[in-house]
Specification:
single chain; Rossmann fold; globular; GTP binding; GTP-binding
Amino acid sequence: MADSNEMTINLVVLGRTQTGKSAAGNSLLGSSDFESHRSPSSVTTCCSLGRSCRISGIIRRSGCELALRVQVLDTPSYPHSGLSKEEVTDMVRSALAHHFGEEGLHLALLVLRADLPLCPDESDHTIQFIQELLGPTWKDFTAVLLTHADKAEEAGFTEEAYLHSASSTLLSLLSSVQHKYIFLDNQKSIIKEERAIVLRKLLNFIRQNNYQVLLLKHSKE
């Protein structure tokens, strides 16, 4: 908390190339802080922190309305077209410690595309990567953000139908993070009302976790 009338939540976006990590970060911030576009190679090559303006009308605690600030750490993808796993891991771990070392991390958002299937090998590599970054309690501090939900909707899937048809790999991942997931419509995510819905869901996950934060220190000497 910056003061008694304000709350700041710290988030990091993680995921593969072209899943929409940076675009999701921009949606959460209500800005265009992070570079995001289609590319034959990984666009994000370094970590970058974005901060939102004060947001009102989102959260109340003890009967009082609080202003909300959102901080999002954008990260290079893993696998990356130009960086090794070790380079990405060290870079992200260092940035987490630098930006959130004092206040702690509320949630890591694993960004997956709703319009592409999640395969077992991809899931295994992703989970291993997150475990190395966040440690043994990663499940308590990780939520899944399913981007391009509009594409799934265009294909005729409601959220319920989508989950009913989803691969066992994805369902197992969602179960492991206590079903903390959000569908993000890329066409509507820039709309203020849609952003408020997503932020309220994230705050609910944080509330369910008793507002705990994950303290991360850069262990590499």
